[in-house]
Amino acid sequence: MKHFDALIIGSGHNGLVTGCYLAKKGYKVGVLERRDTIGGAVCTETMFKSDENPNGFRIDVGSSVHIMIHQTGIIEELGLTDYGLEYIEMDPIMSYPLPDKKGVIHFFKDVERTLESISKISPNDVSNYREFIDFWGRINKGVLKAFMVPPSGKNIFLEMAKGQIRDGSMFKKGEQLTGLQKILGSYGSVVDNAFESPYIKAAMIWFAAQSGPLPDQSATGDFAGWQAMLHQSGAKHPRGGSGMLTQAMKNLIEAHGGEIIANSPVKNIDVEDGVAKGAITEKDDYYRSDFIVSNAHVQTTMLKLVGREHLDASLFKKVEDIQVGNGFGMVIRCAVDELPRYTAAPDDPYIHNGMQLLTPSVEYMNRAIGDYVKGRPPEEPAVLAMTFSKIDPDVAKDGKHTLFAWAQWHPYQLANGLQWDDIREREAEKIYRVVEKYAPNMKGKRIDWYIQSPLDIERKHGLLKGNVMHVEMNFDQMFMFRPTPELSNYETPIQNLYLSSASCHPGGGVFGAAGYNAAQVILKKRKRKLFKRNF
Predict the structure, then answer these.
(1) CA triplet 234, 228, 182: central angle to 5 degrees?
(2) Reported pTM
(3) Domains of the chain by range and CATH?
(4) Is residue 376 a contact partner of residue 339, using CB atoms and an 8 Å limit?
């Protein structure tokens, strides 16, 4: 039996963020990971080795693009570059090749370069984009601060409104009501009202959709408005793959005397008289700890690892009723002979530096959403393509390339008796065909691929129903409502058991804020001095 000061269940990036801060404060940290590789959904594996490609390909099996974590100060505070982490700037952050004629819209980190690109496609939207970025940039200064602290029991939007009316920090004079209307509106309507060009509308809505809610969902306006923050932090890719972030955190924890234990799925948390004492693995290994931090999905943690016998019946029911949703999307991870040569911009020097938004129109996306609502995969999926081997040769060393293609609105529970194991390859081919339609040179250029349907994502990462955000990012499951009001402060009714996953405020993505906030709560509870913030 091993004993740790702090035991982290799951090696996802939020749990490792918590573990790193605790380790730097002198706690002996243990991490139990169910898989043979660490990192949860921020993990990179080497695949597709052959005589022709002896080095194989570095394939991200979860997240790929790192944006929000660069707005938090976590990387700098932990000094992760000292533990093997190196980031490559993605600039432009994303590009939208026009579906029906020559031309491409680049969204650079630099606003002026972005405006120059927009001017070539839709001159009238230059001022519209500038106003959009200005408005939402002011809004999100406050939102980011709210993300980086445990949520209060107050209505976040009412508090934001009172604060701006008091000091004018968010809304300009006279724009209070229209500003609140934007915040409380849907991101689909926010984008539609802000721009003229159907291309810009499609690009902006498709990128905003990566947060999860459908474009017509109320109180989601800021999923589009977060575009303003991209011009501050940019987007980055870790050299060697997304998992190099979690590898660096693993290195930090081990350098501070901690231990990462792979191939150790937890069977249950040992609870005695309402107090968490340790964790028991499926091999019946017992790990005792002064306190436990679960980075697993909230339903897995509370319903399975803790169990009904240790919870109030009403809380058990509330956790059971959390909206996980019906799937999210699926992705294909391809090794390819060459990079896509997009018909709209065949010789563009920038398009492979960042994400490529492959959706011809808002109506196209609405058709995909219509299929999703009916319980079937989209006939024509919207695709977000990523070609990291262009900026990072470490992921494909034998003169070949990687191509990841994420598509959305793929239901976990299918209608008409369909099963994902039966249709996954068929649906994967649809996604690849979208890439071929935009870049005909990709026909016959696929060397191999790794498919992740919503069911595959659940199996691989423990993300229930394939929801990469853990639970739906609807307003009634954000801030003090996430994952339930009783659990929103990263604490549980079980003494010495804490939560740190994306099930908690502020939600999913490569952010680290949930892990950071959990560390704040734990350190305050244990009367250790808090670390300073940059804002």
Answers:
(1) 155
(2) 0.93
(3) 2-87+240-323+469-525 (3.50.50.60)
(4) no
